[in-house]
Task: structure prediction
Amino acid sequence: MGSYESFARVYDLFMDNIPYDEWCSYLIELLKEYGIEDGLVLELGCGTGNVTERLFNAGYDMIGVDNSMDMLEIAMEKKEENKKDILYLLQDMREFELYGTVRAVVSICDSMNYITEEEDLLEVFRLVNNYLDPGGIFLFDMNTKYKYAEILGDNTIAENREDASFIWDNYYDEEEQINEYDLALFIPEDCQGELLYRKYEETHYQRAYELETVKRLLEEAGMEFLAVYDAFTREEPKADSQRVYMIAREKGK
Result:
């Protein structure tokens, strides 16, 4: 699992290009299509709470789970500031525990790609199935193999901003289907009145999964696979889809 320690401090800054409102509108439309209009919803890999808060605003009772204390600290600050009644839990999604069941589980922003072992992904799916109400819905996105191999590939992405800069190197291993992200962050700090940049480095790993593998694991975990869409559409994924949304249902434990 990626460590987000220093990244947590600038995560929202560098994620400001993600159209969270549009992503969440799509997510909420899908939830409503499957009859989930309110009630308890769990978000896995909630990070700094950008999606969690929007779902809360849409009328859901939200629980957010993440394994990064740094990310959750920021989510908690936002929760206090915005007066949102959200329950945040510091847990690894491969062994999360809730007090009861929920109507839906959601996970977006490629959190599932961070699970790099098949048996761990199966374990996450089993837990999701376990904590879903009868007939509850699991909705999640994933980056595709095409995105890792063709778009990120061995590319470097860099941004130089006034308040921080980063260099993001990608290495994709075709055989293992693992994408390695090497992040170098340059964050300004006030050092006795002088502005100095401190460099932080961290490495994250994500895995590309074949759609068939994910379907099989969902079914092994006891769920019924319902649909897969090219992100933000109701269309089948194409050969060059970069992100897909998958929907599964609890079908009786």
Remarks:
- Confidence is low (pLDDT under 50) at residues 1-5.
- The two ends are 29 Å apart (CA to CA).
- The longest strand covers residues 178-191.
